Amino acid sequence: MKTLSLLKILVALVGSAVCGVAGMAQTAANGTARAKEHPIPRIVEKDGRYALLVDSAPYLMLGAQSNNSSDWPATLDKVWPAIEYLHANTLETPIYWEQFEPEPGKFDYSQVDLILKQAREHHAHLVLLWFGTWKNGSQHYMPEWMKVKPEIYTHVTNKNGELVDSPSPFAQAALEADKRAFTAFMKHLKEVDGERTVLMVQVENETGTWGAMRDYSPEAEKLFAGPVPAEVLKAMGKGDAGAASWREAFGAEADVDFHAWAVAKYVGEIAAAGKAAYPLPLYVNAALRDPFKGAPGSYESGGPTDNVLPIWKAEAPAIDVLAPDIYLPETASYLKVLELYRRADNPLFVPETMGSSRTLARFMFSALGLQAIGYSPFGLDLTRALPVRPGENESPLSFLDATAENYKLIGPMMRDVARLNFEGKLQATAEVEGEPTQTLHFGDWDAVISYGTGRRGGTAKGNAEPQGRVLVAQLRENQFLVAGYFCRVDFRPAGSEAQRKAGQIVNGTGQEPSAQIDGKWVHRQFLRVEEGTYVDGEFKFARILNGDQTDWGLGLGAEPVVVRVSVGTY
Ligand code: DGJ
User: Fold this and answer.
1) How far is the CA of 96 from the centre of ligand 1 (A)?
2) Fewer CB within 10 A of the end CB, N or C, for the chain?
3) Biggest alpha carbon–alpha carbon distance for the chain
4) Residues 414, 128: Cα–Cα separation, whole Å
5) Sheet with 554-556: strands ordered across
């Protein structure tokens, strides 16, 4: 990926600063008038697949989350150059309770207005993160007037009776204060965002507690000894347990289940109040547990970790999505988390992850393969990316390259990708170590993906680093759209479903575009392979690929290439 010269970056930074002049006062009337043109974004489900509808059509958020302290007038000019360089269509950025409500009941809307104004100037959408009661398990974003009164806005008490750095979900005063502030924020958004710049709102940030599995205060102890609410038992598949206590019902998981119930109830109440003011899609992000061996005590307890998703669904129905923050670089763990959060009752959305290398950025395609509605690596702004060492030549933007590569390819075709995915016609995958070929099944055709085949017809060995990624969508029975990097794609006749069921299909080496069907060899031929680009959301033909460009399948390298291919048999 090409890097910008230092001069270009300076121009971008200065330009952004000029655009970033604060002070837009958009009226409620203005917002209401525009609402007619722009319906409120919403999440819909059909046949077990989800889509985020923006302007009434499926939309894919190609996001970037800013660093935690970047949403200030002083720092936004270090955010936009990164968003532009990335070709991101959505910025995820916080709204800080401490800034929003500097005095009890007095709300400061200036930062909300500023970020809306700047997003519109940069033709970007926003996902706003409500840093309220919880931020990474602590109450660090509560306004100062609350922090100085821990006796009112109480902390979690651990097993030894000590206060920990985490808000108690039983602190009624904090709940009321957060509800009031969040509702004011959502009400304001409704008034000023008829353009629907904001697509979704995150309620709190990584809720839960580090350093204690739950609150052990006298009040909490009483509840813990009492019966588990019926809706929790039902959600957790223990509907027959009767009036069981938490320990009886959940054994070693009782403490974390109890805390999840308490936190989900608290957040659910805030979300319901905010949604009543303005029904935008809402989500909660999770600090994960190890998806293979996450024993209680080894992770942040209380948030929507995979083991307590049903509790969150039952207690916080105003939350549309429970979303994983994925900071697990190992392939097996990453893929497992995606699988755990893409559920019949939950769309997949990755609001935070790592994207600083191609190996990590490839997972965006794994998420697309599970119909993700959005993907957003964390920390993609220039507040920390400033020159490394004096005299060093590397572009301060180069850490964005791997994600930019994805967004450059998918950005122009994002509406088609989201629609085809919602319709169940798209599959996507990323390279997995030790699996040099993968097969995607499309009715009478299999798409065979090979990694590390070399330039001509070599055997797939896998790339030196796993960085291959691809999406394939079926446009017609024999026509496919293909886009990706660092792999080769071919198509193999798959026979009919009846023939497959009867075991009448024999594939050769696995990489060959031919199969033995009912004892006879059937070979794929390319009828027409078109290379093109997406312009204004539509595929525009550029040239026909043939000869060396197709004789060994469709080779996808480091360039953002989109191919539309028709296949037949002989
Ligand atoms: C996850 C949190 O949600 C983010 O706000 C941030 O703190 C990252 N971890 C790590 O920097």
Assistant:
1) 14
2) C
3) 80
4) 21
5) 437-442, 445-450, 487-493, 554-556
Q: Which of 140, 352, 384 to mutate to test the pocket of ligand 1 (most atoms within 8 A of CB)?
A: 352
Cα 321 to Cα 206: distance, rounded to the nearest angstrom: 13
**Chain centre to alpha carbon of residue 384:** 23
> Strand 198-205 vs strand 514-517: parallel, antiparallel, or unpaired?
unpaired
Give, for ligand 1, the residue of 202, 326, 378 to mutate: max count of ligand atoms closer than 8 Å to Cβ.
378
Which residues fall within 8 angstroms of residue 128, CB to CB, at 6 or more apart?
92, 93, 94, 95, 112, 115, 189, 198, 201, 202
Cα 514 from chain centroid? 37
**Residues contacting ligand 1 via CB (< 6 Å):** 68, 136, 205-206, 325, 352, 378
Q: How far apart are CA 332 and CA 470, in angstroms?
A: 18
What is the 65 CA–ligand 1 centroid distance (Å)? Answer: 10
Probe ligand 1: pick from 65, 66, 68, max atoms within 8 Å of CB? 68
In which residue are the tokens 């796993």 written?
Answer: 466
Q: Which residue, judged by its Cα, is nearest atom 5 of ligand 1? A: 68
Q: Whose CA is closest to 541, among 531, 550, 549, 551?
A: 531
C-alpha 76: how far from its chain's center? 22
Smallest CA-to-CA distance from 358 within 259, 465, 280 is with 465
Backbone angles phi, psi at 360, to 5 degrees: -80, -40
In whole angstroms, what is the distance from residue 448 CA to residue 436 CA?
Answer: 10
End-to-end CA distance of the chain: 40
Closest CA to 345 of 369, 366, 317, 373: 317
What CA–CA distance (Å, rounded) separates 96 from 107? 11
CA atoms within 13 A on the CB side of 418: 27
CA atoms within 13 A on the CB side of 245: 11
Supply φ then ψ for residue 481, to 5 degrees.
Answer: -105, 135
Between 375 and 384, whose confidence is greater?
375
Q: What is the pTM of this model?
A: 0.93
Per-residue pLDDT reduced to its tens digit, 141-190: 999 999 999 999 999 999 999 999 999 999 999 999 999 999 999 999 99
DSSP 457-494: TPPP---SS---EEEEEEEETTEEEEEEESEEEEEEE-
Asked whether residue 559 carries a pLDDT value surpassing 60, the answer given is yes
Residue 463 makes CB contacts below 8 A (sequence gap 6+) with 431, 451, 452, 486
User: Which structure tokens are listed for 486?
Assistant: 């660092």
Q: What pLDDT does 386 receive?
A: 53
Ligand 1 centroid–CA 377 distance in Å is 11
Distance 384 CA to ligand 1 centre (A): 14
Mean pLDDT in residue range 423-452: 97
Any alpha helices (H) in 132-171, and if so which ranges?
144-147
CA distance 155 to 137: 11
Structure token pair of residue 13: 């930074």
